[in-house]
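Fold this sequence, please.
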Amino acid sequence: MSDPLAELNRLQERDLELDQIREDQSRIPEELAQARVHLRELEIHLGDLQEQLNEVRLAYSKLDLELQDLKSKREKAKAAQAQATGAKEQTQYGEQIRQLSGLIEDLEGNNKDIVGQIMPLLEQIEKLEAELAQVKAQVEEARPKLQALEAANQERVDALEVQYQTKKVNRDQLAATIPSAIVKEYESIRRARKGTGLAKMTKTGSGYRCTACNVQLPMHVAQQVHQASKVVRCPSCGRILWKGE
C-alpha cells in the first residue's frame, strides 16, 4: 500500500511547479518594464509641453487682441485729428495718439531698444513647438517598440499557460489518488503558509526537526509521525509532517 503522504509530497512538488509558472507569468521582463516607463515619461512630458504651449498661445492671443484694439483706436484718433478744425482738438487727439502709440510700443516693441511683450511670447511659442515636435517623434518611435515587446511578452505568457494547464491536469490526476480529506487539509494549510502544506521531518543530533520552520519537535510528535497512523501537524508552523521515504 502506497504512503499517502509520499504521494502528497509529490503533489506538493507539482503544486510548487505550478506556482513557479504563475510567478514567471507575472514577472515583467526588464526591457519591457523600462520601455513602459520610457513611453510613459515621454507622454507625460508631451502633455506638459502641450499645456505650456496652450497657455503661452492664450497669453499671446490676449495681447494680440489688445494690440489690435489699440491700433484701431489710434487710427480712429488720427482720423478724428485730421478732421479737427481747432488747435485744441488737434492737441487733444495728438496726446491721445501719443499715449496709444506708447501702449502699442509696450506690446510689440520697436526696432531699437524696446522688445515689447509680444515678441518673447512668439519666441517661446516657436521654442515650445519645436520641442513638442521632437518629443512627438520620440513617442512615435517608442510606441511600436513597446508594442513589439508587449506582443513578445504575451507570447511568453501564453506559452507558459499551455505548460501550466498540462501540468495542472497531471496534478489533479495525482490528487485524485490521495484521500480527499488529506488533500483538503493540505490545500488549506498551503494557502495559509504561502505554498507549502507538507514538511518533511528530519533527524538531528538531538532529535527531530520540521524542515519547514526548523523547530525541534517534541518526541511524542516525532513518534506519531513515524507511526503514520494519522495526519500529524507541526506544533509550530502547522504543516503536515512526513517522515520521508
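The chain is about 75% helix and 5% strand. Strands lie at 198-204, 207-210, 240-242.
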